[in-house]
Design goal:
Blueprint (H helix, E strand, L loop, with lengths): L1 E9 L12 E3 L5 E5 L6 H15 L20 E9 L2 E9 L5 E3 L4 H10 L1 E4 L19 H7 L5 H16 L3 E5 L7 E5 L2 E4 L5 H17 L7 E5 L7 H13 L7 E6 L12 E9 L4 E7 L2 H10 L13 E4 L2 H16 L12 E4 L8 E2 L14 H9 L2 E2 L7 E5 L12 H11 L7 E5 L11 H8 L6 E4 L2 E4 L19 H6 L5 H6 L3 H11 L5 H11 L8 H17 L3
């Protein structure tokens, strides 16, 4: 058997013609997925191999002017194909010169000839069983050949295999056989009810067509082939599409091949395991040049989903997750987003454009952000220890493609060292190869409440009541809260809001009655508990009816969050 191990192509159609600037594909696997949007150049990869195949077999449809990059008359097409056979590797070099002459090096001519004559096979999108056309762009059995060759196969063995395959894929009991009166007519029994193939949906026909082609090619070769399949999702429900891929992954007869699958369906991404290589195919629209990037970590998969227009909101998930310590943070941030986007004439919806997850303060230490398969230091002897630690953590990106983590500074000023768990997360984000998908928002003040003005919090906290506390087993009664009891220094970024506004209840007369410092510490601690953060937040946001109430610092700190929401939603 002869397998393609890698290839390089330049000067063909959308592949750049400048030397060493074409597309390069390496690290091929048993299953290779080339995925990207329409008109990105995926089909050009398959089309190139098909044209080389026709060239070597001297069939019609060889290289023409339109196949040269930008249709340039004096340009060349150049390619290298890495071929493995029986433990040996060879590099075959091909060229189509300006005269459209096809040339290849003689040293690898035997491998090249064997590969394209006997070990490569194309299944395109023109899979119409009812078609009578004999024009077949792809090198697979035509509809008339399909009908004629069934009787040439080991029919009983073929029928048994096909029944099992279709039953597995369609998840219903399926039987295939010929109409006795019309041998070319195919009858499909589903759950015991007979149907003519033409009366069933196109999806069943597609599956039958592909599997018949694969079975037929298996019968005439030893070992595996290189199977190129264009858009296997055509006419298939995503679930059936996935079941078909799962079948060729596990079936003994089918999995011996090396598959090259060209698709713009996201359904296949769930099938990926260590036997897959995934390549993101995209086009630089300014130059009209195809680029191919191998995806070996989650960010690459997210790039694919973005490029083919699949958003989490289409799957009833939000496009970005904002991680917050508790529900009061959600209340404030929702209000601020509403106020700041209203001036742009937009409205972001929680649950669609973004959503919240709560990590609960110190539990933040159990979360992390990882670039799987991407070590910052390949020689780091602590990698094994780090891997074990990471396995105990929850990856923030397991819930969303884009994330913002909001953390209270819990320090009086920005120069004070952060808590270890915050520093650890900050370092992890800084070390990410793709920092553009995650933002860390560490509040400028001690807590998120420090973004609220002194006046607004004063008004809200004045609505809370505290009648008394017990101090040294004696009841100490309080008067109504009074704004005059607050410290001379206004509420600022260094204060803890609940402790600061607890002093609303501590009149000078009361403090003169209990002058010891211990009384004030005990009183502040006990009074501060009445300021339930959720109730405070709900009352505060009712007073924020325009963004004029938002501080300059808040508007500055929230900008990265708003920008990431826009990016995550494609605005």
């Amino acid at each position: 058997m002869y397998f393609i191990e890698g290839f390089y192509i330049e000067g063909y159609r959308s592949f750049k013609s400048k030397m060493h600037k074409g597309i390069k594909v390496e690290n091929l696997n048993n299953f290779n997925l080339f995925i990207g949007p329409n008109n990105s150049g995926k089909s050009n990869i398959m089309r190139f191999f098909m044209q080389v195949n026709r060239q070597l077999k001297k069939k019609p449809g060889r290289f023409q002017t339109k196949d040269f990059h930008k249709h340039e008359e004096k340009s060349k097409i150049f390619a290298e194909i890495d071929i493995s056979s029986q433990g040996k590797n060879e590099k075959a070099t091909l060229m189509v010169n300006e005269h459209k002459e096809f040339l290849h090096d003689w040293l690898s001519s035997n491998s090249l000839d064997q590969l394209f004559r006997n070990h490569i096979y194309f299944i395109g999108t023109n899979r119409d069983h009812s078609s009578t056309t004999e024009v077949n762009e792809y090198d697979f059995l035509s509809p008339s050949e399909i009908k004629g060759m069934w009787s040439l196969l080991n029919y009983d063995g073929f029928k048994t295999l096909m029944n099992g395959w279709l039953t597995d894929i369609l998840e219903e009991e399926v039987e295939v056989h010929f109409d006795d009166d019309e041998p070319e007519n195919i009858i499909i029994k589903i759950a015991g009810i007979p149907y003519e193939l033409a009366d069933l949906g196109s999806g069943v026909e597609q599956i039958l067509q592909i599997l018949t082609n694969l079975y037929y090619r298996d019968s005439d070769t030893i070992g595996g082939r290189n199977i190129f399949i264009e858009e296997p999702e055509v006419h298939l429900h995503p679930r059936v599409h996935v079941k078909f891929i799962e079948l060729i992954q596990k079936d003994t007869l089918l999995k011996k091949h090396r598959y090259f699958i060209f698709s713009h369906s996201n359904a296949l991404l769930d099938c990926i395991d260590d036997n897959w290589s995934v390549y993101w195919v995209w086009k630089d629209k300014t130059e009209g040049i195809t680029e191919v990037t191998q995806c070996d970590q989650r960010d690459g998969t997210y790039d694919i989903l973005d490029s083919i227009g699949v958003k989490p909101s289409q799957l009833m998930q939000s496009n970005l997750v904002i991680w917050v310590e508790g529900p009061s943070d959600r209340i404030y941030i929702n209000k601020w987003i509403d106020l700041l986007t209203a001036e742009k004439g937009r409205r972001y919806e929680e649950g669609k454009h973004y959503s919240f997850l709560m990590y609960g303060g110190s539990l933040l230490g159990h979360y992390g952000v990882f670039d799987k398969g991407n070590k910052n230091n390949e020689n780091d002897e602590n990698d094994g220890i780090r891997d074990e630690e990471e396995q105990e953590l929850v990856d923030i990106f397991s819930t969303s493609r884009y994330a913002v983590v909001v953390i209270d500074r819990d320090r009086e000023d920005q120069d004070s060292p952060l808590k270890k768990r915050v520093e650890k997360l900050e370092t992890a984000i800084d070390n990410r190869e793709r920092k553009d998908r995650v933002k860390l928002w560490i509040t400028s003040g001690r807590e998120i409440e420090n973004y609220i003005s002194h006046e607004t919090l004063s008004e809200v906290c004045m609505t809370f009541k505290k009648e008394y506390i017990l101090y040294e087993n004696k009841r100490v009664d309080f008067e109504e809260p009074n704004i005059k009891n607050l410290p001379a220094v206004s509420f600022s970024t260094k204060h803890s809001f609940d402790e600061y506004f607890a002093e609303l209840f501590l009149s000078s007369e009361l403090l003169s009655k209990y002058p010891e410092e211990k009384f004030k510490e005990v009183a502040v601690k006990k009074i501060s508990k009445i300021f339930n953060k959720i109730f405070v937040a709900k009352r505060v946001v009712k007073k924020l009816d325009s963004n004029e109430y938002l501080s300059v610092k808040l508007k500055e700190d929230i900008k990265p969050l708003l920008s990431l929401i826009e990016k995550a939603n494609g605005f």
